[in-house]
Design brief:
By secondary structure, the chain is mainly α. The protein is 52% helix and 4% strand. Strands 1-2-3 form a three-stranded antiparallel β-sheet, with no helix packed on it. The chain is globular, with a radius of gyration of 23 Å.
Length: 267
Amino acid sequence: MSGYRLLAEAHGRLRTRVGAAFPGTRAVFRGQDLHAELGDLDYLDLYHYGITGRRLSAAQLRLLHAIWVNTSYPDARLWNNRVAALAASARSPVSLGMTAAMAVSDAMVYGGQPGLWAMAFFKRMLAAVDAGASLADCVLAEARDHTVYGYGRPINSTDERIPWVMAKARQLGLDQGRHILIAFEIERILLTYRPQLKMNYAALHAAFAADMGLSVPEYHVLRMPVFMAGIVPCYVEASEAVEGTLLPLKCDDICYEGREKRTWVAE
């Protein structure tokens, strides 16, 4: 179909499968009445349903809550929390501060992107194993040529969140999914190659999301607000403090390597 025809058919109308609002009467959310049929839904369940069109089981929902809760660190030194807190300290509107913090939460090295690459990696490894390949050979080949995202962590390679989430997964009977099992098997293989390549939270979260049936694009949308409960207290605390007093820098703190002080002479 030509671009012109596509535009012509879209002109003056919105074609949608996700829903519509009918002011004064009702709202439709993926074919169901939001108020009459979905009004009692857990918010995270509704959020997932909006992305995928599928409902979570009660156990999956509890595990997803545990994953989100256990990464809610209200520490203004963390990169995304700091953005929100600095915005509050500068008296920026809350919407701008939160949006900026959400944006940097998707960082390529220490934000959400490694989880996406980890999920894609798990799916590739499972496909290779199903085709008869050796998992160890595939993983070590990847490690030699590329960064294996989801393994290794700055400051301390042990991720303190993993035991708590795994305990909840075992309690809920969700610890035997193919992706979470291969994630731990990959960790065992990588540790023989480099001892610091322990699994981090990105791999854990990605593996459980994959076992819940999410694709990489669906997971990207799902995980975006995962840090929000830790960001908000940092914004609130900074907004209650004296303006501009969050993590101030002295001139001596800045290592300037440019040109020396110059004298400006008017022509």
